[in-house]
Amino acid sequence: MHPDKFDAAAFLRDHWQKTPCLIRNSWAHWQNPLDPDDLAGLACEDGVEARLVTRKAGDWKVEHGPFAQKRFAKTGKHPWTLLVQAVDQIVPDVAALIEPFRFVPNWRIDDVMVSYASDGGGVGPHFDQYDVFLIQGLGRRRWQVGPIADADAVMLPNDELRLLANFTATDEWILEPGDILYLPPRFAHDGVAVGDDCMTYSVGFRAPSRAELIAHWCDHLLAELADDDRYGDPDLAPQTNPGEIAPAALDRLHAMVSEKLNDRAGFARWFGSFTSTPKYPDADYTPDDTTSTKALRKALDRGAALERNPASRFAFVRTGADALTLFVDGDGIDCSGETAALAERLCAQPRIAADPALAKSAAAVELLEALINQGSLGFAD
C-alpha cells in the first residue's frame, strides 16, 4: 500500500516539523493490516511492550503487559485503549506502513505503535517530543489538536501518563479508515475513539535530545581513554601569583577536552553504531542454523531475494568517494567498491533481488553471510 499522489517534497517544505497536516483518503486501496484479535494476542506475549489505559470518572489507569487473555473480557463499560509498541517488528504487513514515509531518513524512524480503543477510548490530552504519522486503520477517531506545549505546561498528577491539565483545541477532525494525520513535535493533541473497533497506527520518529547525545558520546569517549592520558606542562615557568590558573594552562586543559569532543570522524562512527542499535537490543534473532558460504553462493546464483529483519536497523556513513561504513544493529562494517554499492542497496529498501553476480564476489558473500548469520538479513520466503 502506498499513499496516492502524495507530494513528499511539498510536505517536507510546508509541514515537516512546522504544522500539522491532514491527508484524507490517501491510499489507493486501503486495507487494515492487522486484526484486532491478533493485536490483543500480541499484547499477551512475553517480550512485547504493551499497555492498557482505562478511564473511569476522569481517573486514568495504566496497566502493563503481558496480559492474560481473559483480561480483555473484563474491560467493562468504561472507555479503554490497548497500545502495543513496535508491531512492525513482528507483523510484516504493519512494517509495510513505514515504506511510504522513507523520504525521512531511516535513522530517524522509530517504530509503528498500534492502538485499539473502545468507544470514547484514548490516552488523554498530551504532547510528544517526536514527529508522528497517525494512520486510521479501522473505525473512526476524533483528533483535537492545540498549540505547541513546552516544559512549563501544567500537567495532571499522573506518573505514567503525561496529561495536560489545560488543553484547548484549535483544530478538530474525525479520521476515517485510510486517513492520515501528521503531527510535529510538541503540538498538544487528544484522540478519542468514535464508536468501537477503532484502530490507529502511529508511525513514530526518533529525535535524540542534546543531553542524550552528549551523555552517550561522552560515555563512549570515557570508555576509550587511557588512564595515562594526562595533563602535562614541560614548559612550565615561574608565575607571579601561584594561585592563578594561567591562560596557557586553561588553553591546554580545554584542548584536552575539546580535541576529543570535536573528533567528527569518531563521532560519525559512534553515532552510526548508536543510532542503529535495535530498539530492543536484548532480543536474539540469530538463526538456529547458520548459512554456509557454499549454500549462500548457490542461493545467490539462483537469484534468491534478500530481506532485512524488520527489527534490524541499517544505515551508512560515507567515508570516501567509493567507500562507506555500514552500520547494522550497532556494528560498523567498512565497505568499499562493490560491497559499498551492495551496502547502499541493503539500506535503500527492505527487500532486494539478489544479483547472481554477487556469488562471484568474495567480499560481497562475506558481508551477506555475516549479516544472515547474525539474524539481520535473511532470504525472502
Automatic annotation (TrEMBL):
<keyword id="KW-0479">Metal-binding</keyword>
<dbReference type="Pfam" id="PF20514">
    <property type="entry name" value="WHD_ROXA"/>
</dbReference>
<dbReference type="InterPro" id="IPR039994">
    <property type="entry name" value="NO66-like"/>
</dbReference>
<dbReference type="InterPro" id="IPR003347">
    <property type="entry name" value="JmjC_dom"/>
</dbReference>
<dbReference type="InterPro" id="IPR046799">
    <property type="entry name" value="ROXA-like_wH"/>
</dbReference>
<keyword id="KW-0408">Iron</keyword>
<keyword id="KW-0560">Oxidoreductase</keyword>
<dbReference type="GO" id="GO:0046872">
    <property type="term" value="F:metal ion binding"/>
</dbReference>
<protein>
    <submittedName>
        <fullName>Cupin domain-containing protein</fullName>
    </submittedName>
</protein>
<dbReference type="GO" id="GO:0016706">
    <property type="term" value="F:2-oxoglutarate-dependent dioxygenase activity"/>
</dbReference>
<feature type="domain" description="JmjC">
    <location>
        <begin position="93"/>
        <end position="222"/>
    </location>
</feature>
<keyword id="KW-0223">Dioxygenase</keyword>
<dbReference type="Pfam" id="PF08007">
    <property type="entry name" value="JmjC_2"/>
</dbReference>
